[in-house]
Every structure is written in C-alpha cells, then in structure tokens.
Amino acid sequence: MFDNLIETKAKKEKSAGGTVLSVVMHVAVIAMAVYVTGRNVAEAIEEARDEKVDFVEVKKEVVPDEPPPPPPDVVVAPPPPKGFQVLTAPVNIPDVLPEIDLSKRVTNEADFSGKGVAGGTSTGVVGGVPQPIQNDQAYFEFQVEKQASSAPGSPGPSYPEMLKSAQIEGEVLASFVVDTTGRADVRTFKVLKSTHQQFTDAVRRALPQMRFLPAEVGGRKVKQLVQQPFTFAIK
Asked: Could you tell me the CA-to-CA distances from 180 to 80, 105, 115, 134, 152 in Å, in that order?
C-alpha cells in the first residue's frame, strides 16, 4: 500500500554534554546530602556533650543509734554511826604555818570526843555503819587501842666506837611510822632531839633491822606514828 511508513514521533539523540551534566548534578546532590547528614550528626554529638548532667545524691538510710544504757541504780551510803572522828597523822610535818581560811566550816569539837564508834560523828545514827579503817592512814598514839612497841629480841643501834672510847653518853629522840608488818618506814624518820650526830647516824642505820609489834584499832593492825628515845649509856 504504502511504500514509506510515517514515524509518529522522532527519537532525539542524546548528546554527550547532557549526560555529563546529569552525572554532575547527581554527584552534587549526593554530596550535599552527605554534607547535611554529617553536619546534623556532628551537631547532635556536640549537643550531647554540652548537655548538663545532674548527679542525684542518694541519701543513706540513717540507722538510729542504740539507746544509752539506763543509769545504774543509785546506792545510798549507809548512815554514819554515833561516835567520833579519827585524825590522820601527817607523815611530813610542815615547818610553815598554813594560811587560815575563815570561809571553811568550823570543826565540831563534839566529833572528837573519843566516845562511841571510831569514824562516826556526834550527830550520827545509833547502830550506823562505821567507816572502814584505811591501812594507809597513820594514827597517833592516843588514837589507837594498842600502841606500837619494840618486839622482843629486836636489835638496837650500835654504840659508836669513837664516842664509847671517849666515854661520851647521849640520847636521840626520833619519830617514824611503824607499819602493819612491824617494820619502821625509814622514809618517815625524823630526828627531834640528838646530842651527837654519830648517835643519830647509828639510829638511822639500825632502824631498817629493828622490829616492832604494830598498833591495833578495833582488833586490826594499823600504822602508827611513834616517838621513841634511844639512850646511849656506858655501863
């Protein structure tokens, strides 16, 4: 019929320039997308770094302390007996008069009557509990029931040879404390009177070897401050 067919739409030939342009545009779009994505990620990381972190302190559970133990029962001291006070003999006798304090309570003479129970007071209770005797307390001669005395066979001081050959006699009056074992406490030795220094030295040397019968109060052995003369005489 027809020797020649009519083409309804002619095909356009693609040029090389259009292909290059298309590739460049696609690359540019991809690069832009990568850039934007990377920037968003960097900003997100930076924001995460700048984010303020608040530390919450966890309070420890407070365990209440154990309640303090109840106070011990109050022990009421027994009433003092009706009796008298016992003076304590000073071991070291002061050579200076102490100052008088007028604010202190005046001593009640009735507490030193010597009647009743030792360690009590004149206003004490009949049948009260007496105070225990202190072993460290030294008593005077008038305070004890049985005075300290020299034990039989106790050695005495030796006569100094120089004074004996010179026919010199003398005496030493000394004070010292005799303890509950019957020994003299040489630390309390004091010379009250002496006619010669050699006599004093003889008594001082012999005192540690001397033995005594200790004083007693209420059937118990106590310390006593004694004054004993030592006579040196040529027979």
From this structure: 26, 33, 25, 11, 17
Task: Give yes or no for a contact between 165 and 198, defined as CB atoms under 8 angstroms apart.
Answer: no
203 pLDDT band (50/70/90 cuts)?
Answer: very high
Calpha distance 40→7 (Å, rounded): 53
Helix, strand, coil content of the chain in percent (nearest 5)? 25, 20, 55
User: What is the token pair recorded at 29?
Assistant: 């779009």
Q: CA quadruple 16, 19, 25, 28: dihedral positive or negative?
A: negative
For 115, which DSSP code?
-
Backbone angles phi, psi at 149, to 5 degrees: -145, 165
How far, in Å, CA of 9 to CA of 3, rounded? 19
In this prediction the pTM is: 0.46
Q: Distance (Å, rounded) from C-alpha 123 to C-alpha 81? A: 8
Residue 131 contacts residue 119 (beta carbons within 8 Å):
yes
Q: How far apart are CA 4 and CA 1, in angstroms?
A: 9
Cα torsion 86, 83, 221, 137 to 10°: value is -20
In this predicted model, what pLDDT tens digit does every residue of 34-85 receive, in sequence order?
A: 565 656 555 655 655 555 555 556 555 555 556 555 555 444 456 777 777 7
Q: Which helix (H) or strand (E) holds 202?
A: helix 197-206
